[in-house]
Amino acid sequence: MPQTPPKFVILDRDGVINLDSDHFIKTPDEWIPIAGSLEAIASLNQAGYRVVVASNQSGIGRGLFEMSALNAMHEKMYKALANLGGRVDAIFFCPHTAADGCDCRKPKSGLLEQASERFGIELKDVPIVGDSLRDLEAGVALGCSPHLVLTGKGTRTLQKGGLPAGTRVHDDLRAFARWLTRGDRAPGTAAS
Ligand SMILES: [Mg+2]
Ligand SMILES: [Zn+2]
């Protein structure tokens, strides 16, 4: 019998849940949700999906902001989500810079391995949603199914090409959530 993947979704943060900035998101005030993204997470929860976040946060390693600021941003996200009946089960982040040579900075898969261990699940066919190629690469290495959203850097990422085989493209997180929860596999375009 074919295994159905666990009802689990992994999201990148900046450019997927909240607006991105080339100057980093450094304070709770700069953390602004993309329209419909929090509602999308709540709708995934209502459909029985657990949602976790895996995010590169090299601004910490660069000394642009402190852990306390990151925690405050995430408090803001948790509260806004709770107001909508939504929940993120965990946030895994990499505080390092590329120069640190860590195992967790995407496109490495360390953050996703942490999620897999924490929740005791295999990530095969679990959707990973990102706006950058490295998000998708980190997931594909562990057998996740790649989903690109066109928010944040997504349009640029699509134009650059070279996406993993089978990548599905959605306008935004709301469109992804609709696609997943409806079980409607027709919309969205697959990139090659
Ligand atoms: Mg991003
Ligand atoms: Zn790291």
TrEMBL record:
According to the UniProt entry, what is the EC number of this protein? 3.1.3.-
The places in or outside the cell where this protein is found are:
Cytoplasm
A Pfam family cross-referenced in the UniProt record is Hydrolase_like
Any keyword Acetylation? no
Is DNA damage found in the keyword set? Answer: no
One example of the protein's molecular function in GO is: D-glycero-beta-D-manno-heptose 1,7-bisphosphate 7-phosphatase activity
NCBIfam families per record? HAD-SF-IIIA, Histidinol-ppas, PRK08942.1
State what protein this is by name: D,D-heptose 1,7-bisphosphate phosphatase
Tell me which species this is from.
Cupriavidus respiraculi
